[in-house]
């Protein structure tokens, strides 16, 4: 046996023994309380029909882009979409990526250098941690949403710092105290970077747009695989940062650009959201119904992600299986995705869930815990 295979097998056996083995399962039939399709755009027939019409009118949208954006892949569609996105978010510039993971890799790996410190919220998404490993900068953590701890970390630094936060945390279902963090960043001369993957489309185009903090952040990342029901991401920044990324960010440079279909879907998605604000109103109503059931959760009002902490892997698995048997699709999150002892059932609420579904789901959970 190859050494590599032996290593893989031993690691898998260990995970299995601990009850934490991940498996790819075919997508199940059931009521969706687990996807990031918060506004139901990925299943919205009207939206699909608009995309289809665009493709019928311009079938070349489906073709491969033929190269890196620095060679043959820089189509008019991607340029137009970037301009559109920057304007919507009121940033000087936007740079599109095929996914949020790639956008974070590009941003954090390329800009902070060996003399810099990246201070991340301990709950920051894995893509930021991976990006920090690709960077020459040093990474430090602060306790989740803890302003005092962040300030303590900032006080100890004497070089350039970046602060990395999410606006809505996808495992905890809580918001960052973004105004206070922006204030601290400015007080200590640190550059604030905000990942808006989960707040995009839920709080307007994200918290930065909602609170008009464009001048207070160094850069932001919005992603399109969640509330927009499509795929991709944008880094929002100023023109020099964009030009720097085009010159120095490997995840941007050394890859074939996505198809124009992806960029077109993003622009169409924004336009669709603008004329379908009722979807977010319905989502907010569903969040209220869920929250009114009084389940104990670290998550907050207004968040489409609601976590129920169950730090007993067997109990958590049993609850998830019970829910699946009743036709509810939920997601059980184990360590190392979350800290050991904080394993949880992650419920995602959507505009399309019904009151009856939410009441039945919460009823089962209540009986169980
Ligand atoms: C906070 C956060 N950032 C970035 C990403 C990565 O985005 P994408 O799924 O588009 O790669 C995710 C998605 O899992 C996320 O939750």
Give the key terms.
42% helix, 14% strand, 14 helices, 7-stranded mixed β-sheet, Aspartate Aminotransferase, domain 1, alpha/beta, binds pyridoxal-5'-phosphate, Aspartate Aminotransferase, domain 2, 369 residues
Polypeptide structure, described:
The protein has 14 helices and 12 strands. It has 369 residues and is α/β, with parallel strands linked by helices. The chain folds into 2 domains: 111 residues, Aspartate Aminotransferase, domain 1; 209 residues, 3-Layer(aba) Sandwich (Aspartate Aminotransferase, domain 2). The strands form 3 sheets. It has a 7-stranded mixed beta sheet with strand order 2-8-7-6-5-3-4, sandwiched between helices. Strands 9-12-11 form a 3-stranded antiparallel beta sheet, covered by helices on one side. Strands 1-10 form a two-stranded parallel sheet. The longest helix has 16 residues. The site of pyridoxal-5'-phosphate has 14 residues, from helix 4.
Helix count, per DSSP? 14
CATH architecture of the largest domain: 3-Layer(aba) Sandwich
Q: Report strand order across the widest sheet.
A: 2-8-7-6-5-3-4
Helicity range: 40-55%
General shape: globular
* CATH-level-4 superfamily name of the largest domain: Type I PLP-dependent aspartate aminotransferase-like (Major domain)
Query: Average pLDDT across residues?
Result: 96
CATH topology of the largest domain: Aspartate Aminotransferase, domain 2
- What's the domain count? 2
> Which structural class is indicated by helix and strand composition?
alpha/beta
Q: Which cofactors or ions or other ligands sit in this model?
A: pyridoxal-5'-phosphate
SSE series: HEHHEHEHEHEHEHEEHHHHEHEEEH
Percent of residues in beta strands: 5-15%
Oligomer: single chain
């Amino acid at each position: 046996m190859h050494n590599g295979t032996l290593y893989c097998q031993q690691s898998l056996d260990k995970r299995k023994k601990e009850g934490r083995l991940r498996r790819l399962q075919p997508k199940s039939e059931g009521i969706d309380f687990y996807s990031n399709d918060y506004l139901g755009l990925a299943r919205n027939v009207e939206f699909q029909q608009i995309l289809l019409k665009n493709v019928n009118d311009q079938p070349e949208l489906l073709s491969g882009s033929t190269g890196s954006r620095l060679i043959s892949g820089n189509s008019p569609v991607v340029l137009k979409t970037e301009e559109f996105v920057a304007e919507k978010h009121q940033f000087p510039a936007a740079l599109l990526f095929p996914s949020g993971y790639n956008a974070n890799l590009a941003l954090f790996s390329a800009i902070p250098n060996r003399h810099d410190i990246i201070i991340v919220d301990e709950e920051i998404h894995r893509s930021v941690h991976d990006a920090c490993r690709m960077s020459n900068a040093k990474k430090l953590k602060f306790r989740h949403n803890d302003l005092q701890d962040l300030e303590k970390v900032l006080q100890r630094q004497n070089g350039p710092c970046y602060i990395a936060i999410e606006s809505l945390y996808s495992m905890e279902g809580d918001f960052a105290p973004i105004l206070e963090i922006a204030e601290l960043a400015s007080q200590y001369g640190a550059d604030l970077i905000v990942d808006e993957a989960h707040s995009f489309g839920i709080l307007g185009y994200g918290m930065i747009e909602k609170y008009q903090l464009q001048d207070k952040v160094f850069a932001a990342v919005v992603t399109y695989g969640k509330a927009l029901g499509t795929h991709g991401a944008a880094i929002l920044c100023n023109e020099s940062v964009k030009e720097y990324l085009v010159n120095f960010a490997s995840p941007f440079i050394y890859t074939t650009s996505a198809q124009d279909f992806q960029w077109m879907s993003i622009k169409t998605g924004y336009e669709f959201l603008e004329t379908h604000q009722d979807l977010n109103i319905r989502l907010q109503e569903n969040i209220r119904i869920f929250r009114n059931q009084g389940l104990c959760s670290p998550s907050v009002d207004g968040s489409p992600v609601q976590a129920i902490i169950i730090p007993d892997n067997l109990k958590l698995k049993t609850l998830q299986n019970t829910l699946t048997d009743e036709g509810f699709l939920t997601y059980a999150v184990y360590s190392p995705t979350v800290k050991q002892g904080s394993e949880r059932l992650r419920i995602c609420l959507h505009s399309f869930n019904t009151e009856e579904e939410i009441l039945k789901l919460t009823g089962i959970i209540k009986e169980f815990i």
